[in-house]
Design goal:
- The structure is a single chain.
- The chain is mainly β.
- It has three helices and 18 strands.
- The strands form four sheets. Strands 1-12-3-4-5-6 form a six-stranded antiparallel β-sheet, with no helix packed on it. Strands 9-8-7-2-13-18 form a six-stranded antiparallel β-sheet, with no helix packed on it.
- Strand 8 (about 95-100) and strand 9 form a beta hairpin.
- The longest helix is centred in the last third of the chain and has 7 residues, at about 275-280.
- The chain is globular.
- The N and C termini lie close together (about 5 Å).
């Protein structure tokens, strides 16, 4: 994280709806610098491990329901030298309990039953499909609120030894492991490709597992109209006796198979017809998608991906993490991008 940037965020492109997530990492340090390992859903359910750069012997565990701030949800967990020592931080998330662990030892367990809110008649408990995020961000900036700066331990010192030696603040992530659990009892399951919400309340009973495709066919596509601006034969002027339209004017997602007007998702002029594009126009899901839940599989390095998109005001589709267990090995990542 160099001076003048907003930090770095690494995020999975697939979603987890209950499971076990572990990250082995070393944090950054110095006032105003915050390292984070969180799960975050599209309706802002959130599960956190956050590390303040001035306190290398504690990690903050926290959670939110739909982004509603409740500062009583935060709880510190003692740990030793988060900057100099790799520790494994773990979230075990089920429909009924949420447990934060460090190096295999459980330090905090939240019961869903204790989160009932009588005013809204809801459990204020994280309960919707979430993406995994690792981040390093400068909370201690003058442009942030005073409360945020104080929480982060003060203003960032851009002349700190770490910046002088490396040119930036950094954290190091060694490994991330994820095991997906089966859908909760009574879940709406009609497929294995994407999560959607069928109601604007955004609670667990409105989540459905479907085979809906979530591939946007153009840069004008949305979660409710994924084929927006995708040219039909008539629109491109390829009907008999007409002149083809200029394909360079058609918005596409570069490199996306089936997204463009020529073969293999490319723009015109590649000598191919629009067969590949036409086959993708209906939004069918790619082959090889895995069930939402199942027996554990051998670890592999990398994120399994299925397609994804979002609605204008509420997520329509969310990629489901493929398989039930994966591992990501990131060798000494310095979070310095951006």
């Amino acid at each position: 994280m160099a001076q003048g940037t907003v930090g770095t965020l690494l995020a999975s492109t697939s979603y987890v709806w209950y499971g076990n997530v572990k990250a082995t990492l070393k944090t950054s340090r110095t006032a105003g610098v915050v390292t984070a390992f969180i799960l975050l859903s599209d309706v802002k359910d959130e599960i956190d491990f956050e590390f303040i750069g001035t306190d290398l012997n504690d990690v903050q565990s926290n959670y939110y329901f739909q982004g509603i701030p409740n500062y009583n949800n935060e709880h510190n967990i003692s740990v030793t030298d988060t900057f100099g020592t790799y520790h494994t931080y773990e979230v075990d998330w089920t429909p009924d309990t949420l447990t934060w662990l460090v190096d295999g030892t459980a330090h905090r367990t939240l019961s869903r039953n204790t989160t009932w809110n009588a005013t809204s008649n809801q459990y204020h408990y994280p309960q919707t499909p979430a993406r995994i995020q690792l981040s390093l961000w400068p909370a201690g900036l003058n442009s942030n609120g005073l409360g945020t700066v104080e929480w982060a331990g003060g203003l960032v010192n851009w002349n700190s030894p770490d910046v002088q030696n490396a040119g930036y603040f950094y954290a190091m992530v060694n490994e991330v492991n994820v095991q997906c659990y089966s859908p909760p009892s009574g879940a709406k399951v009609s497929g294995s490709t994407s999560y959607i919400y069928d109601n604007a309340s955004g609670t667990n009973d409105t989540v459905e597992t479907t085979d809906d495709s979530t591939v946007l066919k153009s840069q004008l596509g949305t979660g409710t109209n994924m084929s927006a601006a995708y040219p039909s034969q008539a629109a491109t002027g390829t009907a008999s006796g007409s002149t083809p339209a200029s394909t360079s004017e058609i918005p596409t997602i570069p490199g996306l198979n089936g997204a463009g007007t020529g073969s293999n998702g490319l723009r015109g002029g590649n000598g191919g017809d629009s067969g590949s594009a036409a086959s993708g126009a209906g939004g069918s899901a790619p082959s090889g998608t895995a069930p939402v839940a199942g027996s554990a599989t051998t670890d592999f390095h990398g994120f399994a991906q299925n397609p994804s998109s979002s609605m204008a005001s509420l997520p329509k589709g969310e990629r489901i993490l493929q398989g039930s267990l994966f591992a990501v090995l990131v060798a000494i990542i310095g979070m310095i991008a951006m």
